[in-house]
Design goal:
With 355 residues, the chain is α+β, with helices and mostly antiparallel strands. The protein folds into three domains: 83 residues, Uridine Diphospho-n-acetylenolpyruvylglucosamine Reductase, domain 2, CATH 3.30.43.10; 113 residues, Uridine Diphospho-n-acetylenolpyruvylglucosamine Reductase, domain 3; 104 residues, Uridine Diphospho-n-acetylenolpyruvylglucosamine Reductase, domain 1 (Alpha-Beta Complex). The protein has seven helices and 21 strands. The strands form six sheets. It has a six-stranded antiparallel sheet. Strands 2-3-6-4 form a four-stranded mixed sheet. The two termini are 28 Å apart. The structure holds uridine-diphosphate-2(N-acetylglucosaminyl) butyric acid.
Length: 355
Amino acid sequence: MDNLNEITPLKIHSLKQIQSKHRYPLRLLNTFGFDVFAHEYIAIQTPEDLDHLYNSGIFSQFQFGILGGGSNITFTGDFNGLILHNQILGKTTLESSDEHVIVEFGGGENWHQAVLYTLENQWGGLENLSLIPGTVGASPIQNIGAYGVEIKDCFDSLTAFHIPSGEFHRFNNAECHFGYRNSIFKTERKGEYFITSVRFKLSKKPVIKTQYGDIQAALTQWCIESPTISDISKAVIFIRESKLPNPAVIGNCGSFFKNPVVSDKLIHDLTIKYPDIKIFPAYDGYTKISAGWLIEKAGWKGYRRDDIGVHAKQALVLVNYGNGSGAEIIALAKEIQLDIFKKFEISLEMEVNTW
Ligand code: EPU
């Protein structure tokens, strides 16, 4: 991890007044659509805004929360602190060779728009991650992944503002400690860093990744034998739209739980009882089991209680039909966790953060 204050002159003391907004509505800023308010709210538009705020002392006055696209957060009530909303934009090509390009995006850029930009330029690497809701700055926090790819596969580095010290730091791939839906920003350094920009190393000679069954099925259906990265993106968009609820229509945060990793011994016993079990290799002695399958098998798929429920097409997704609350979602999630433990002796871990 580099201390960028020693490398780049980022300490610009702008005269710009940064306005904090009091009792700010968050309903349109969280994809569950919960009708909650932030005690204070500030939109961060440049890295220098953070520097300026640090010098104003505001970070020691309030508990703060960093918000990107609000697509992985359950607000269980009003946020009694300061929301820092990442709106830092920008796309820059930093290096380009015959083989690769390094492109940097502002942390507040919309993830899917960033993916589309890489496709327009025919740079490969992010196509399997099309249509994931959220921002570029949030993508490394949980090492977003789908259809056989995780961002760690083409992540180069990121720059982040360390709120407790007021310093900018750069993290390379290894320093992010990426794991399955995990990174240093979700564990040891949780809540400390505001990610201002992310760099990806993309390929000008892309290797197409079609090993995920559903992608191959879509390409076969469309009679595409030699797919381009744009074809892969279209297949991914098609699959996501057919299975996952659109947050603009039904509030949700994508997968609510992680797929649990359990011992091969337990899998052996479960396979005898449930021959249709959905499992994937994890690492030596352990296997990943589909949480969606477990929840469906336990009878929760399509369950609805008042305005919250379990999505009818993908049991891993909890939904808000309109007037549900975060507290109700968490209560439902806990019931599901208990039931899965009772039926399968498997603990489900939440993937979504709770504030
Ligand atoms: N399945 C069921 N019932 C269900 C849902 C799934 O039996 O209700 C079975 C499917 O039939 C399939 C298997 O479980 O055989 C896997 O399902 P799917 O392909 O939908 O993937 P997933 O493991 O449920 C993960 C990610 C998703 C990502 C997909 C595709 C996690 C927590 N979720 O879901 O990511 O889009 O793979 O790669 O790892 C997200 O993180 O928000 C997210 C949507």
